[in-house]
Specification:
The structure is a homodimer. Chain A has 13 helices and 26 strands. By secondary structure, the first copy, chain A, is an alpha/beta fold. Chain A is globular and about 65 Å long.
């Protein structure tokens, strides 16, 4: 009899296993593929590794600006890929070691819930007090004619597996995943086209930040077709209708499908024991608990934030509650990052969400071009930090930035929002100088 | 009659002037040289600009590691200097514009306090309700034989003014300033020797962090002589005695004096009106107020933290109190950064200070090599995040890190310390993934 059986070894599952192990619980982790989930195997980690190499290459191409002359630079994709795979191996070994250290049993196989207290893997059945479902998500494949059984069509999984970068790439979907790949390929000098249904890129991200990145990508030669619908695909040819009802066909060496994610709720036995779920995912409360009290779920499969760090936190909340520590998963300060160059990072509500929810806010847009470090370390192109506070209380509600180091600075903003600081409280904090994070501080003085 | 006369236009003075202007006060700012103080003219800003260029060059030299082949890279100091000077001009214009926008009168000249309510500049005398002294500091010149009237001897002012980098540089003083120049010159391929009296570099910085940077600099060819005393200088020859009582003479094209700072308390009339000060600086209370209630002082001249951002905060505190907002200058969460490669950033107490003050603490050292983004974006060399909490309450007291982005991440730690979060509170926060700032979060689980 296990204390907890965890299904899925991604950022929800393996973090839950680690925490439960630390609490001395008897834990079984079942993973059908590799430890680390989408994040480590076909998501965050390989893309960030490749993006860093591409940024290194791109920074070298523009080094003249900083008084550094570089005559001959080239981007060697096979080396980049090899380095990335080595990194992934290392991180997977790290997780395996962590499981061992915390006495977590790990088995490879496909799990199926058979009763509220048992899970089968093949012919073996395991009994448990609690079940934690962390089965994640997969690429959503839209029903487009000519998409299936087409060698030129790939998802995030396929594009990371190829050995040679295609010379031209058509990306269907201008959300975060699509835009990161657009940036990677554009920095490597490839021809990129992005086709997106919405009028803006990067999904729910503040539109102005998305536009800043879009402008930069355009300058690098990326073609954008927004408010556009793909009609059909034929080999490498993609036919789409744009906002002016004009139909165009473009051709590319590869077509990347980046049209969102579908939750993995099939074939795990949710129906067998009557777990409440729909096509958006498994329904959980703030404790990450399903309608069945000893069955929990965390991560993408719960259909909330499709972010590795949210998955880890939600999984930790489940384990804390299982172990008797009352804990809830707050969602007011979940940071999100787009690892483009420049980076976008956000936490808290956007102006659009404030409007939707009827929250009266004050907003300021602080230009990074007022910041000493930013000017010292960039070419001075437009970049901003947008700060949103409650109109009456002046409590900080959102920070949205585009520019270097945003991904790391956003943690400070997350702490401020979570601790419910007001603009006056933040005015009294001391930020390092010269640092780009000073812009968060400086913005406060404009929020009157 | 002015509301406030501010003496000195550095990060204390010009920020005070801006804030006072925002409050509608009638402000006179007196600066004898250029606006921006040491920070903008001969300190933080030019060094960070040059360091960024040198890091760009150095990163190019090691780009192979990331799959980028660069055949021929060179560091063009004259271009780097020109770019830096343009940046400084731009930032000085920015301050001038800020003064104008906030209706601050600025005059160039040397100020002398004549009464508690008047300040003279040459033959002109100006009356005021309040005086704020922000005269800053200058390089401390130690009484070493052969140092004066020696063309080869320079300070931070001189080294930033020269047109050509000397091929070899001997740095007397291994504090933060000395080490940043050591790194700049080493990255540019110059021969660097550092002579320091203390057994460690970077002053009061956590010793282990200093050692990490020292090791990296050593690998780049920098010679360190710690616990060493300089006996005399003769032209380019520096004679010093080391910890084993051995006397050595080395020769260098230039000798940089980086042996700390002396406060600028002379010739401003402190004695005339009886302001309490000693060789460490003007004594102020938590409100930045001197022993004379309408006379205030902020920044380096108060002899506390010799950091631009502390100066700005202390100056803001003075203005807030002058304007009737009760505000005190807390010092528990003052971040400090060493802009070497890798960067060092610290906030709160070190283990040494905890011992000194008799605070019982728990400490953990979290290796950045456990972090996905760090491994993706580095060569995997040793880097750490050291976290210190109160043993009983588990309140966070200090964060000390060495590694990329430290300067920007430290803001998050400063907020956590200032808001008195415990390790349990921080466990419940959500950090972005993959990001190096996650190490602060991960470290919490080890602080039991």
């Amino acid at each position: 009899m296990y204390d907890i059986i965890i299904i899925g070894g991604g950022p929800a599952g393996y973090v839950a296993a680690e925490r439960a192990g630390e609490h001395g619980k008897k834990v079984l982790l079942i993973e059908e593929d590799k430890l680390g989930g989408v994040c480590l195997n076909t998501g965050c980690i390989p893309t960030k590794s490749m993006l860093f190499s591409a940024k290194t290459y791109n920074h070298a191409l523009h080094a003249e600006e900083f008084g550094v002359t570089i005559k001959d630079a080239s981007f060697d994709y096979s080396k980049v890929k090899e380095r990335t795979e080595n990194l992934q191996d290392k991180l997977r070994s790290g997780i395996a070691a962590l499981m061992k250290m915390n006495k977590v049993e790990v088995i490879k196989g496909t799990a199926k819930i058979t009763t509220r207290h048992s899970v089968a893997v093949g012919n073996d059945e395991y009994e448990t007090q609690n079940i934690l479902i962390c089965t994640g998500s997969r690429p959503f494949i839209p029903p487009i004619e000519g998409l299936k059984n087409n060698d030129k069509v790939i998802t995030n999984v396929g594009i990371l597996a190829i050995d040679k970068m295609p010379e031209s790439l058509c990306i269907i979907g201008g959300g975060v995943i699509g835009i990161e790949f657009a940036n990677l390929y554009a920095m490597a000098g490839k021809k990129v086209t992005v086709i997106e249904m919405l009028p803006n890129i990067c999904g729910a991200t503040d539109k102005e930040l998305g536009k800043t990145v879009q402008k930069k990508l355009k300058a690098m030669g990326v073609d954008f077709h927004l408010k556009a619908t793909v009609n059909k695909i034929d080999d490498g040819k993609v036919s789409f209708t744009d906002k002016k009802d004009k139909t165009t066909t473009i051709e590319a060496d590869a077509i990347l499908i980046a049209t969102g994610r579908a939750v993995n709720t099939e074939n795990i036995g949710l129906e067998t024991i009557g777990i409440d779920f729909d096509r958006k995912g498994i329904k959980v409360n703030e404790k990450a608990q399903t309608n069945i009290p000893n069955v929990w779920a965390a991560g993408d499969v719960t259909g909330r934030w499709q972010l590795a760090h949210f998955a880890s936190r939600q999984a930790t909340v489940a384990i804390n509650n299982i172990c008797g520590r009352n804990d809830i998963c707050r969602e007011d300060a979940v940071p999100s990052v787009v690892y483009t160059d420049p980076e976008i990072a956000s936490v808290g509500i956007t102006e659009d969400i404030a409007k939707e929810r009827g929250i009266e806010v004050v907003t300021t847009k602080y230009p990074l071009t007022n910041n000493g470090r930013y000017l010292a370390e960039s070419n001075g192109e437009r970049a901003i930090c947008k700060v949103i506070a409650d109109k009456t209380t002046k409590q900080l509600l959102g920070v949205h930035m585009v520019g270097p180091h945003s991904s790391e600075m956003i943690a400070a903003a997350a702490v401020m929002i979570e601790t419910e600081l007001t603009t006056k409280d933040i005015e009294e904090l001391i930020f390092p100088h010269p640092a780009i994070c000073e812009v968060i501080h400086d913005a406060m003085f404009n929020l009157k």
